[in-house]
């Protein structure tokens, strides 16, 4: 068995700010990022804001269908808007997730095909996973794709699981007031795959609706893989090597480590087209045909 994690570490942001505890807290943060790829962040100062937002989510998703459909993602080549239940696919299976992607678009230089999705770093998304039969896929196994790190607020329902290096699914139960932080594929690409984005999934609840709020910290879409690696070469030298062959045997392949794509934005576009096939077929039919036939390794 590989030396790996069996629970998600907790990092106290307040201790990171205190000179008396900063060194110890930084060591905990280092271990969490390099060895696990997931952590709980507590005492971050956003607790009241997050709580108030969660209180509004049932009301948002209870809006009449015709109201939500006015901003359906199918109308957006930038993959922004409302995703109805059953319209999103992860690991080739339909998710039991309804979501609202509300992101800022910014003017950044990018190849022509990527201009509509640039600047995807912005306000959080909001997700709802509906009750289903025991063991149903709420959100299938995946790695977050947008950039560097994800900051997630989950309610008290549970269902989030993280894949460790032995190929075991580890529960990430809710901790009140915390943010779940995990590495995205952009950071994985920067480190040449040494610091891996950790695969995770959500098992659908059986008796109550699950709400969550993820914020995706992105990077420039026109960055190439070589540029990404060069910019963080000094970080890679500090990352301990690990044996995760068992995890990779059941892991999710990454577009962002593939030489098939010219830059970060193209890899991201491929990810969105595969995850939202209806949007992909409408706006990018040729790319949809190409990407669905390509096999990532």
Automatic annotation (TrEMBL):
Highest taxon in the source lineage: Eukaryota
PROSITE patterns cross-referenced by the UniProt entry: FE2OG_OXY (PS51471)
One Pfam family cited in the UniProt record for this chain: DIOX_N
InterPro entries with a match to the protein in the record: DIOX_N (IPR026992), IPNS-like_FE2OG_OXY (IPR044861), IPNS-like_sf (IPR027443), Iron_ascorbate_oxido_reductase (IPR050231), Oxoglu/Fe-dep_dioxygenase_dom (IPR005123)
Fe2OG dioxygenase domain sequence ranges: 123-219
Gene3D superfamilies in the record: B-lactam Antibiotic, Isopenicillin N Synthase, Chain (2.60.120.330)
Keyword Glycosyltransferase among record annotations: no
One Gene Ontology molecular-function label: metal ion binding
Keywords per UniProt: Iron, Metal-binding, Oxidoreductase
Family classification: Belongs to the iron/ascorbate-dependent oxidoreductase family.
Protein name per UniProt: Fe2OG dioxygenase domain-containing protein
Native organism: Aspergillus arachidicola
Taxonomy of the source species: Eukaryota, Fungi, Dikarya, Ascomycota, Pezizomycotina
């Amino acid at each position: 068995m590989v030396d790996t994690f069996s629970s998600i570490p907790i990092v106290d942001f307040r201790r990171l700010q205190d000179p008396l505890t900063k060194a110890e807290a930084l060591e905990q943060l280092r271990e969490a990022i390099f060895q696990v790829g997931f952590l709980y962040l507590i005492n971050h100062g956003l607790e009241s804001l997050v709580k108030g937002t969660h209180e509004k989510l049932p009301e948002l998703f209870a809006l009449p269908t015709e109201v939500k459909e006015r901003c359906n993602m199918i109308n957006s080549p930038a993959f922004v808007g409302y995703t109805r239940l059953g319209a999103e696919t992860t690991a080739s299976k339909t998710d039991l997730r309804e979501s609202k992607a509300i992101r800022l678009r910014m003017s950044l230089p990018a190849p022509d095909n990527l201009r509509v999705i640039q600047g995807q770093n912005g306000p959080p998304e909001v997700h709802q996973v509906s009750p289903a039969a025991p063991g149903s896929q709420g959100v299938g196994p995946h790695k977050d794709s947008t950039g560097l790190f994800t900051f997630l607020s989950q309610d008290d329902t549970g269902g989030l699981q993280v894949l460790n290096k032995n190929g075991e699914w580890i529960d990430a139960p809710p901790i009140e007031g915390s943010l779940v932080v995990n590495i995205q594929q952009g950071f994985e690409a920067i480190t040449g795959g040494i610091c891996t984005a950790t695969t995770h999934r959500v098992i659908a609840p059986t008796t109550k609706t699950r709400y969550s709020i993820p914020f995706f910290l992105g990077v420039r879409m026109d960055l190439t893989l070589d540029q990404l690696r060069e910019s963080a070469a000094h970080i890679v030298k500090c990352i301990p090597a690990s044996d995760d062959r068992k995890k990779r045997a059941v892991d999710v392949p990454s577009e962002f480590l593939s030489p098939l794509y010219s830059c970060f934005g193209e890899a991201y576009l491929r990810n969105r087209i595969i995850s939202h096939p209806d949007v992909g077929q409408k706006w990018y039919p040729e790319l949809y045909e190409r990407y669905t036939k390509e096999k990532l390794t």
